[in-house]
Design goal:
The protein has about 400 residues and is mainly α. It contains 19 helices and three strands. The chain is globular. The N terminus is likely disordered.
């Protein structure tokens, strides 16, 4: 059972709410290789040990569990007593101590309410604390705590607004450590929003200076950096920034499937790549920030792998390509055909000869296509403007 409060060294360990979020995702995922009854008991024990009444009600609703009203009442009473103690400490500090002691008591109350998952009460308490806070750094810490609370409840619109606020605070004088932390929070939001290119860039920047352990451990940053970079970077950038990155090399062996996934793709060992791909996708489906994008990611990774393979040939037998990827000819034929029609792969399939012929657009053709896209954008803007003028 995990038992601690957010004040017990937030820098040293992951936020308890986010640990529970991951545990609940594991419990709900059919791909998770875990003992489900044991995991559920672990979740409940953690909730009860930390008097997390609001989270208990929320998780019980999510998992369809009967609420133990006696336990719930006892936890609420414990929370009320703890909050009353914080309020008494704040009042005592106002009368007998200084502003820093008052702020410390107010922050303790806000962080405690956030830890047990009382979102509305926590936000109200954080607002009071922020009013007593001087400087960008302490205010950014408050924003980070609020963002984690919103991440747990899946309120990503609020997370977006909070990170914009954190960026403004950072621009007005944030310190080096908090600037680096902000990049990790922004990377998680970008990844959740399916902006894998931005997420990849931010995770890569965070690798050498990672300190946001309240979000997840360092091994997870490496996982996210590799996962996002594979579909966001070209082969040269992937080699320089990921495959040969010391931060990746020292940690990736903790996840053998991820290591095989990356090395096999870069080494053009497509059979081993697809073998590792199955396990990596299973890990993605169990991740609260990536699970919603699992199907999209599977498609994008296959585009990267097929394109990389075909770049070496002017034409290649469909059977040879299927053998390289260890898949059936019919499966590869259908999948590559769909990607060609969607404009994701520059090739054509000769069904009679049983070959795939690649077509690489030249610079002039690429410039022509880019001009057409820009022309369409301009035309759409002109049409919108004309409608506005007509209305006036």
């Amino acid at each position: 059972t995990i038992q601690h409060t957010e004040m017990d060294g937030e820098e040293e360990r992951q936020d308890l709410k986010l640990e529970l979020l991951e545990a609940v995702w594991q419990y709900r995922s059919p791909d998770a290789p875990v003992d489900k009854p044991k995991l559920l008991q672990h979740i409940l024990d953690t909730l009860f040990a930390n008097d997390m009444a609001p989270l208990y009600e929320h998780i019980a609703g999510e998992l369809g569990l009967a609420v133990d009203q006696a336990r719930l009442g006892a936890m609420r009473a414990s929370i009320a007593a703890r909050v009353a103690k914080f309020e008494a400490d704040a009042k005592d500090a106002e009368e007998n101590a200084g502003e820093s002691e008052v702020r410390e008591a107010l922050l303790g109350k806000a962080e405690y309410l956030a830890m047990v998952g009382d979102k509305d009460a926590a936000f109200a308490a954080f607002a009071v604390t922020e009013g007593k806070s001087a400087g960008s750094g302490p205010k950014m810490d408050i924003v980070f705590s609020q963002a984690r609370l919103c991440m747990y409840y899946g309120d990503w619109h609020a997370v977006k607004d909070l990170l914009a606020k954190a960026q403004r605070l950072c621009d007005s004088g944030g310190d080096w450590e908090r600037k680096n932390k902000l990049k990790v929070y922004q990377a998680v939001f970008a990844m959740y929003s399916r902006d894998f290119k931005l997420a990849s860039s931010l995770f890569h920047e965070a690798l050498a200076t990672f300190s946001a352990t309240e979000l997840f451990p360092y091994s997870r940053v490496v996982f996210y950096a590799v996962i996002t970079s594979i579909i966001a970077m070209d082969r040269v950038a992937l080699k320089a920034k990921v495959v040969d990155a010391p931060e990746v090399l020292t940690t990736i062996n903790q996840n053998p499937a991820l290591q095989q996934f990356l090395d096999a793709l870069y080494g053009c060992q497509y059979k081993q790549f697809f073998q590792a791909f199955v396990e990596v996708v299973s890990q993605i489906k169990r991740d609260p920030y990536l699970a919603l994008h699992a199907r999209y990611y599977m498609r994008e990774v296959r585009v990267v792998a097929y394109t990389q393979f075909l770049e070496s040939y002017k034409s290649v037998a469909l059977a040879s390509m299927a053998a390289a990827f260890n898949v059936r000819d019919e499966f590869l034929d259908h999948e590559v055909a769909e990607l060609i029609v969607a404009g994701r792969i520059n090739a054509r399939i000769d069904k009679v000869a049983g070959v795939i012929e690649t077509s690489r657009p030249g610079a002039r053709s690429a410039l022509y296509q880019e001009s057409l896209k820009k022309g369409d954008v301009l035309l759409n803007r002109v049409q919108k403007l004309s409608r506005v003028i007509d209305m006036e």
